[in-house]
Amino acid sequence: MKKLIECVPNFSEGRDMGIIKQITDTIESVEGIRLLDVDPGKATNRTVVTFVGEPEPVIEAAFRAMKKASEIIDMSKHKGEHPRFGATDVCPLVPIANISMEETADYARKLAKRAGEELKYPIYCYEFAASSSNRKNLAVVRSGEYEGLEQKLTKPEWVPDFGPAEFVAKTGATAIGARNFLVAYNVNLNTTSTRRANSIAFDVREAGRVKREGNTLTGKIVKDENGKPVRIPGTLKKVKAIGWYIEDFGIAQISMNLTDITVTPVHLAFDEVCKSAHARGLRVTGSELVGLIPLQALLDAGKYFLTKQQRSLGIPEDEIIKIAIKSLGLDEVKHFNPKEKIIEYILDTDTSKKLVNLPIWKFADETSSESPAPGGGSISAYLATLGVALGVMVANLSAQKRGWDERWEEYSKWAEKGQKLKKELLVLVDEDTAAFNSILEAYQLPKNSETDKFIRNQAIQAATVKATEVPFKIMKLASESLQILKAMAETGLEASISDAGVGALAARAGISGAFLNVKINLPSIEDKEYATNVLNQATKIQQAALELEKEILDIVNKKIDR
User: What angle do CA 432, 437, 440 make, to 5 degrees?
Assistant: First the structure.
């Protein structure tokens, strides 16, 4: 499960494509980085670049891009419509997958520290990486822009977080931060009226609308004691919205920026627009996602709509994504391809020949070949996967049984747990073969000198421990699946009771097979305390699995035989 962050640096150059190309080439020079988008603007004289990767490569690529920008962009000659105060104006990091905002903010500060020390110009931290509350807002940090920066740096309250408190005319300053993912999202209406679309936009956006006396459209604007217009807030936090007419589609849309999808996710924004449209005699016909979206956002959407339908959430990932696409109407105005719109899918460029990607017959052929891998460990992992998959199937069938509507959530929870186990076990199918191959590679290392022998032995030991830990993990995961299968045997759909029994047989076989692979590796491990501890734990799991398998089969056979 890779940690993924997105970086969206904004460079103060949007007209000279040669300069922009030098910067993006620098970014792409870092291994592990995927450049997703380059968006130059002539009027703003600004280019927004988007790239993604694991944290360390991302901050390396961001640093190299900042360094290149400081060399080839001269802020003393820059003019543009967008607020700015540096060659690399802003550089936000965004958590995408398997990483917290706190970790992302730490990486932002790490990047800021390096940039300040090595590039020697002022660096400020903002949003979640801010050093104080008055520096969280980017607009505040960048106030005065480039033209006011020299004077700003003389004030004690604006000493930069990193780098010198000195005005560097060529580079200006950079704001580095950590923020949540921003989604550009449009909702389609069955009208061509921009005015009516705007009314809905004002209903939902956080800023709402200006309050007026009497008639809300033409009445006098109500002002507060400071003479500023009083506003009626909208229903959605962290949302900016406006109504417009799209000639290409022949419809009006609500165009929204969801600036923090942890506060207002896509599915809640969609539903709120539906409510407002209905109240105004209009209907939402679909929606459009502009740019990319994290996988979790669409999984959350799919599960949200499944919950509303009282359907099990423990279905395969691609089915959840289909539910999200259809429920949001993402394919109404143009084809929506998850492989081109979901960040994690775009980044999945693994072309290796994984066992789990093979057709069943090909997997069987590969196993039956003269090669020693895949072997018993991979087969044990796959057996356990099939076992839990049967348990999930029974749970999902039970969740939609007529007359059991009030129990759908109970079965959904079992199915979700099973899907998680299934996903982890599938990974171990290939990990076991990789662990075995690493042992073979370690034995091929040279052993000419004492140093060679030491290095070789260390490699063999590390590989053997890994080859033990993989089947041990298979045992632990498969033992959890037996709990699901027991629950399905006891309370699941009786028409599928035999499936629960077959699942238990497969899961227990996976545990016993993995146990054999644990035991065969233990004698080669020099750390005898570790080996004894693993053996004791594995033996307990094996014994418990045998007992639980018997309990499940007794339940199954009694129900079948009566």
Answer: 135
